Amino acid sequence: MRKTTTVVFLTLGFALYGCGGSSGGEPSPGPEPSPGTCPECDWNIEQWKLTLPISRDDFYGSGGDSAAELIPADCSGKQTLSNDTRLDYFWVDSNDKRAHFYVNLGDKGATTTNSNYVRSELRELYNYQTSNRCSSSNQNWAINNSHTLSSELQIEQYPQISGIAPKVILGQIHGYEIKQALVKLLWEGENTPVRVIFNDKFEPNNETCSDCQSFSVDLGTVKAHDNWRYDIHADKQAITVSTTINGVITSKELPWGVPVEANDGDKYTLTKDWLNETFYFKAGIYPQIKPDTQYQNQIFEVSFNKINIEHK
Question: Helical H runs in 106-238?
Answer without folding.
Answer: none
